[in-house]
Amino acid sequence: MTLVDTHAHLTAAEFDDDQEAVIERARQAGVERIVVVGFDLPTSRQAVALAEQHRGLGAAIGIHPNDAQHLGAEEKTALAKLAANPAVVAIGETGLDFYRQRAPREKQLEAFRWHLDLASERGLPVIVHDRDAHDDTLSALKEHAAGRRIRGVMHCFSGSEAFLEEVLALGMYISLGGPLTYPNARGPVEIARRVPLEALLLETDCPWLTPAPHRGKRNEPAYVQLVARRVAEVRGQPEAEVAAATSANARALFRMA
Ligand code: NI
Questions:
Q1: How far is the CA of 146 from the centre of ligand 1 (A)?
Q2: Distance (Å, whole) CA 119 – CA 80
Q3: How far apart are CA 202 and CA 223, in angstroms?
Q4: Which domain covers residue 49, as residue numbers?
Q5: Handedness of CA 29, 235, 208, 109 (dihedral sign)
Q6: CA of 68 to the centre of ligand 1 (A)
Q7: Looking at residue 81, which CATH number applies to its domain?
Q8: Strands 152-155 and 126-131
Q9: Separation of 103 CA from ligand 1 center, angstroms?
Q10: Is the pTM of this model over 0.85?
Q11: What dihedral angle (degrees, nearest 10) is formed by the CA atoms of 132, 133, 137, 140?
């Protein structure tokens, strides 16, 4: 049984001391592919370097909505150039975060649209972060889609069932992570039951959102198996089936051989 962690921040400072050991532990746990996600320009560059060094790793490059105010002309030029690197498998993470709202909404929207355009130009999928911004996220995606389908994923999906139907209709994949394993995870459990298996991806969002029973400690890609187990449990489906389908979905979306 093999798995893909479609959202890992392996370039976060939390992994400075044991990045190699963490990647090795993931392999031992059957996590054969990992999408290493940048959240600013330096971590995007580091994600590309890491993916170039390791088989089975791909890089996602972008500026997180919480840092959207730092997306200036210089960063745009650098990211557009970096996007041509063959190790890059996605653009992001981008999107809208009206929960923390560290960057002004207008700036977040402008940055989100810019990332969507870059993804289209490069023929790459987009990794979307949406926190308390479902309506604006959906409007921006619909406007960008202009009637076509979008190649991308709603990472750590947290919306309603109605919102789920809307983003599925746009062609988006749905990714679930650690929060699904928490005791009061009613929303994510409902989503895990409802999302068609052919649209489902798994992730850790490590070093954050650590799944039970490791909650409170640092998260890492090996723990994506705990998410797979919980998805299988709530769907009443064999874990091997969930692993096979979500891995095939991830390979198709990110074009990771
Ligand atoms: Ni993330």
A1: 27
A2: 9
A3: 11
A4: 3-254
A5: positive
A6: 14
A7: 3.20.20.140
A8: parallel
A9: 16
A10: yes
A11: -170
Chain CA centroid to CA 117, Å: 18
pLDDT (tens digit, 9 = 90+) per residue, 3-40? 999 999 999 999 999 999 999 999 999 999 999 999 99
Q: Running DSSP on this structure, what letter comes out for residue 68? A: G
Looking at residue 211, its amino acid is P
Expressed in angstroms and rounded, the spacing between residue 169 Cα and the centre of ligand 1 is: 23
Span from the CA of 176 to the centroid of ligand 1 (angstroms):
12
pLDDT, averaged across the chain: 97
What single-letter amino acid sits at 25?
A: R
Q: How many domains does the chain have?
A: 1
**How many angstroms is it from 93 CA to the middle of ligand 1?**
6
Q: Which two tokens stand for residue 85?
A: 């690197």
CA of 81 to the centre of ligand 1 (A): 22
Q: How many other C-beta atoms are found inside a 10 Å radius of the C-beta of residue 7? A: 29
pLDDT in tens, 172-227: 999 999 999 999 899 999 999 999 999 999 999 999 999 999 999 999 999 999 99
Among 20, 70, 51, 22, which Cα is nearest to 207's? 22
8 alpha carbon to ligand 1 midpoint, in Å?
7
